Amino acid sequence: MGLGLYRYPTDLPPLRAMRHDLDAACSEAGRDPATLRRTASFSVSLSGHSKPEDHWMAEGRIANKPATGSPEQLAALLMAYAAEGIDRVQVWLDPNTLDAIEAFATVLELLEQG
Question: Which residues have CB under 8 Å from 14's CB, separation 6+?
Fold first, then answer.
């Protein structure tokens, strides 16, 4: 199992700063930063599918600022993470239902198209 950079917020500027600090620490330790796996994890609140009043993570959702937007906007966010060197993304769909999974399929199709 390799080491990784894990990040939860959906905003990229803090990620860039964290990556810069991590790369510098690797260089100081004599380790090639490219040997680290870089993984992001965040929630996605799907328009028309979330019901905050019914959801057990309502307070956490507000605190963690989930990604929101159209399928095109969500695909663009994931592509931006890839452009920043993130090679794996764990997405927590909110709500975590079959309907939400099916709705997110459009985002995956857009990613496959590039």
Answer: 7
